[in-house]
Amino acid sequence: MWITVGIAIGCLVVGFLLSGLLKKIKEGKKRRRARSEADRILSKAKNDAKQAERKARDLEKSIKRNAEKEIQRLKENLQKQERSLKDKERSLEQSYKSKERKIEDKERILKDEVEKISIVERRLEDQEKAMKEKMEELTSKLQHTSGLTKDEAKREIVEAVRSEAEHEAAKAALVIENEAKEDAEKKAKKIISLAMSRYAGEYTAERTTSVIELPNEEMKGRIIGREGRNIRAMETACGVDLIVDDTPELVVISGFDPVRREVARRALEKLMEDGRVHPARIEEVVDKIKSELFKSIKDDGDKACFELGIQGVDAEIVKLIGSLKYRTSYTQNNYVHSKEVGYL
Predict the structure, then answer these.
(1) What helix, strand, coil percent values describe the chain, rounded to 5?
(2) CA 181 to centroid of chain Cα atoms
(3) Which of 4, 214, 220, 319 could, after both became Cys, cross-link 249 (CB 3.0–4.6 A)?
(4) CATH label of the domain that carries residue 284
């Protein structure tokens, strides 16, 4: 029994000692783990600190580099501005000197001109004095030799000069008359040739026709219409002749009145743009074009009168002035020519 109690007590002591030893071993492991964790954290902190320090140094270097670049850029800009200002200053100085030289040259030229004018004036005065002295000398000689008074001598001189001038004029007139007779045939031929060229057939055809280009041959068929009804309606409405021959994609408007030709030309262009070509549409378009054209003609007439400063002109005359824009003579527009004559 006592042996059992002793064994039990021994087991308890051994268990107690073992539990204490295990506890110490666990605490040692915990301390080692804690120390290892602390070392790891410390090492990480040191690495982070080194990286932060490295980043800070890199950032500092980058900031310094950027600052140096910015300072260098500002210095270069300042230098450029200084050079530009110096160039402008030199340019202004040169321009000023050049203007001064030009002014001095002009002043010298003016002085020379003034001196020349004064010299000419002195010469004229001297010549006038010499002429007066000569006239007085001649008058006195004439009086002395002929026994005439001063007024009588002047009349004699005037009569002599007049008779001599009349004789010279008669000779000049005779020369001019002979030259005119010699050139008469040449001038007559020139006038006839001009008249022939003015009324030549080609010229007349050119000035009495207008040509319209068609987009295609189909449009020519639309303009002619069934049995030619569209072309007849156009000729009746505009008072012109429409010539549609074998020439591809062309219609010729013929008429001596340029205003009617212009109405027909605009109406054809409007109809081609619209695409609808029939007698009712033709009459509608022609009436609209006429009203627009006549308004434009009146505006052109009013504009010409305003530019020439003419007021109170009759409305019909204003329309006639505006219609000159569509007339030509010797290849010149009558509207422009009339305004030029009005300015003169």
Answers:
(1) 85, 5, 10
(2) 53
(3) 214
(4) 3.30.1370.10
| In a shared domain, residues 180 and 237 | no
- Whether 280 and 315 map to the same domain: the answer is yes
pTM: 0.40
Q: Are 338 and 321 in contact (CB under 8 A)?
A: yes
Find the DSSP H helices in 147-257.
150-198, 201-207, 217-224, 229-238
Q: Same domain for 186 and 290? A: no
State which of 123, 147, 171 marks the end of a domain: 147
CB 332 within 8 A of CB 306: no
d(CA 135, CA 129): 10
Residue 30 lies in a domain: no
Alpha-carbon distance of 97 to 194, in angstroms, equals 60
Residues 171 and 142 both lie in one domain = no
| Residues with Cβ within 8 Å of residue 148, at least 6 apart in sequence | 142, 156
What proportion of the chain, given as a percentage, has pLDDT over 70? 73
The domain total for the chain is 3
pLDDT score of 6 more than 50: yes
Tell me the Cα Rg of the chain.
58
Q: What are the pLDDT digits (tens) for 11-24?
A: 666 666 667 667 77
**For position 64, what pLDDT does the model report?**
83
Measured CA to CA, the distance from residue 323 to residue 295 in angstroms comes to 11
Rounded Cα gap, residues 165 and 262, in angstroms: 61
12 within domain boundaries: no
Measured distance CA(207)–CA(329) in Å, rounded: 9
pLDDT digits (tens, 9 = 90+) for 146-175: 555 666 666 766 676 676 666 676 676 666
pLDDT category at 10 given cuts 50, 70, 90 is low
Q: Among 116-125, 173-182, 247-256, 293-302, which range has the highest average pLDDT?
A: 293-302
Residue 119 CA to residue 139 CA, distance in Å, equals 30
What is the SS3 assignment for 53? helix
| Domain coverage including residue 160 | 151-198
Examine residue 232 and state whether it is found in any structural domain, yes or no. yes
